[in-house]
Structure formats: structure tokens, C-alpha cells
Amino acid sequence: MNVSRRHLFLSMFALTIALLLPTSAFAANPSRTVWVSRTGTKYHYVSTCSNMSNPIQMTFSQAQSKGYGPCKNCVRETPEQKPEAEGPFSDVNASTSHHEDILWLANSKISTGYPDGTFRPLADVTRCDMAAFLYRLAGSPNYSPSGEEMTAFSDVNSSTDHAKEIWWLASKGISLGYVDGTFKPFSKVTRQDMAAFLHRMSNVIAPEPTFSFVDVNNGTDHAGDIVWLASMGVSEGWLMPDGSREFRGMSTVKRADMAAFLHRMYNRNLVTIR
Q1: Quick check: 116 pLDDT over 90?
Q2: Ramachandran area for residue 107 (φ above 0: left; ψ -120 to 50: alpha; else beta)
Q3: CA gap 102, 179 in Å, rounded
Q4: Which residues neighbour 102 within 8 Å (Cβ) at sequence distance 6 or greater?
Q5: How confident is the model at residue 11 (pLDDT cuts 50, 70, 90)?
Q6: Angle at Cα 199 formed by Cα 194 and Cα 201, nearest 5°?
Q7: Could you tell me the pTM of the whole model?
Q8: What residues pair up with 59 in beta bridges, in sequence order?
Q9: Which of 67, 73, 89, 208 is deepest in the core (most CB within 10 A)?
Q10: Do the beta carbons of residue 191 and residue 253 sit within 8 Å?
Q11: Which of 111, 107, 118 is nearest to 133 (CA)?
């Protein structure tokens, strides 16, 4: 068999195998978060499945590359087995990361989602949406901005999404904006900035942390706020295979993660600025 015919044969063979494989072989998102136990051989979509203790978090593609197989109890990929939506959002179900926190967010009227009925858990949080979340977390306090407060940021006016909530943040010193006098309402929130916003909403003094993040040091922006977040149990970051933890301060905050952070702040009675 010459080279070209052999290449054609192998291509047809690979296509045949692909067509014969079940839908579940292709359905998973490679970047989806999964959990594995320290001693098991399976990856899980639910961190509490099989009573796992302190499981390791990684992506689906990482789990596959390390040889982990799917858990039969919580990993369901085929369209027939797709979990039904929970709560008011069509894109949130039992397999969604932090789905319980998202449902709490909806029940507490902190988030109403999008007009199409979705929550978009993996979308990045914008600064104007963050302002709305934090204002509602504080109980939607009675607030009317003064004329001076309405000039706090050069890029925020009465037609800006969540303008009132943005001005409230500024009035409480929760957000100081940028050195150029802007707020940048549609910019994405980074994890280190989120740590600062959440810390400024609380005057609770944190205990000594029980762990540290390997990617946070004295030179990290908002390092003190990140340490406070960890000490109060609001964020544990990412647990790495070697047992260390990363915070990844420059990564953007996803809407599902924000739901978890806010729910933990509420459950721990950390919101004292209203």
C-alpha cells in the first residue's frame, strides 16, 4: 500500500471509529471543572460525590490526560441524561458549579439573571454588575446620591447601568475607581479586585490564616485583602496536585464564583457596611 492510499485508509478508519463512539465521548467541555479524590481513579462533576474529602479540582481535559475515568453516579453526558434546570435559570442545573449558591442569589433577589431566562454562570462579572450585586447584598439600603457623589467618576452618569449602585459603592469607600477618575463599568472584575471590594464591605477582623496561596506575596495587589478572604473562608482558591493552593488574582471572576463568594459572605455575617 503506497503512502497516499495508507493515509486515506487511516483517515477513513478514524472517521468510522468516531461515528461509532457514543455522544458522551464528545459532549464534555474540555475546560469544565471536575473533581478527583486523592486516592480514586474517577473524575466527578459534583465535589461531594462518593463522600470525597478535600478533593482535587482540575479541568475535564486534565483529568482525561491523567487517566481518570468518569464517575457513573454524577457524570452524565448524553442528551437523554442532561440534568433538568433548577430554579429560575434555564442554564443552571445540579451539575452547574456553585448551583446552590446561584439559587440562593436568585431567591435573595441579588441577581435576576438575563431577560432570556439565563444566568450565564461562566460569563465574566463586569464592574457595574458587581456594584449591583454588592448593593443588594448589603440589603439595598435607602440611598440617593448627592450632586457631588454623582460626579465621582467621569464615565458614570445617570444613564449608566447600575449608576446608583456604583455611586453607593463610592460613597462607602468600597470602590475608589481608577487614578484617571474613571470607574470603567463594563470592565471585567479580577479576583484580586474582588477581594478588595468584599473586604471593604466588612469590618470583621480575620483570624490568622490556616493556609497561604503560593502566588500571593507582599508585592501582590490587594495581598492583605486576599489573605482576609482566605482567613474568613470566603475563598480557598485552587488546590493543586502537590497540596499547595493558588489564588490567581489576575484571573477574571465568573458569575458562578461570585455567587459562591457572596453567599459565603452572607452565611458568615461578614457584611457590616450598609
Answers
A1: yes
A2: alpha
A3: 33
A4: 87, 89, 92, 96, 111, 119, 121, 255, 256, 259
A5: very low
A6: 100
A7: 0.70
A8: 33
A9: 89
A10: yes
A11: 111
